[in-house]
Amino acid sequence: RYYLDAEEVHLPPFWEPYITADNHVEVIRTQTLPLVISLNGHSLKDHIHDRPQPPVVAATPTKNASIRKEESEHVELVNIRKETPEEHALNRPNGIREAVIISAALLLLFFSLISPVLVIPWMIFVAVLMIAWGCWNLFRRPA
C-alpha cells in the first residue's frame, strides 16, 4: 500500500524501483483509489509493452467457506414502482409480433372471401379478434 498525503493511492508494482525520497507524482482520481499515472518522469504509456504478463493463477476453492443468512436480517418489499413512459419506450418490443398477427388476420379475411358460406362468420370472427389483440398490444399504454 502506498499513501500520498495520508490518502491511499494505487501504484503499479513495477514502479517500486523508481520511488525516491522526493517524488514527482501525477495522479488521476478514480471511483475507488487514485491512480498514479506518472512517477519521477516515468509514465504508464512508457511501460505498457515491457511489462510482463502476470501468470494466470487458478483460484483454489476454500473448503469451509459458506454464506449464511443472518438471523437479524429482515427485508420487506414495500412497493413496486410503475414503469415510466420513457422506460416503456426504451424497453418495449419493436412490434413485429403484432404486425405478423395483424397481417395473418388480414390474410384470413381475404381467404374468407373465397371460403364456403358456413365458415365465413367464424373466419371473420377470428380475424377481428386477431386484429383487436394485435392493435391492443401495439398501441396500449405501459402498465
UniProtKB/TrEMBL annotation:
Q: How does it sit in the membrane?
A: Multi-pass membrane protein
- According to the UniProt entry, where is the signal peptide? none
- Record's subcellular location: Cell inner membrane
- Fetch the Pfam families from UniProt: IgaA
Which InterPro entries does the entry link to? IgaA (IPR010771)
Q: What is its main location?
A: membrane
- Its transmembrane ranges are 95-114, 120-139
Keyword Transmembrane assigned to the entry: answer is yes
Q: Which GO terms describe its cellular component?
A: plasma membrane
Q: Which controlled-vocabulary keywords does the entry list?
A: Cell inner membrane, Cell membrane, Membrane, Transmembrane, Transmembrane helix
Regarding protein family, the annotation reads: Belongs to the IgaA family.
Q: What is the official name of this protein in its record?
A: Intracellular growth attenuator protein igaA
Name its species: Serratia marcescens
Taxonomy of origin reads: Bacteria, Pseudomonadati, Pseudomonadota, Gammaproteobacteria, Enterobacterales
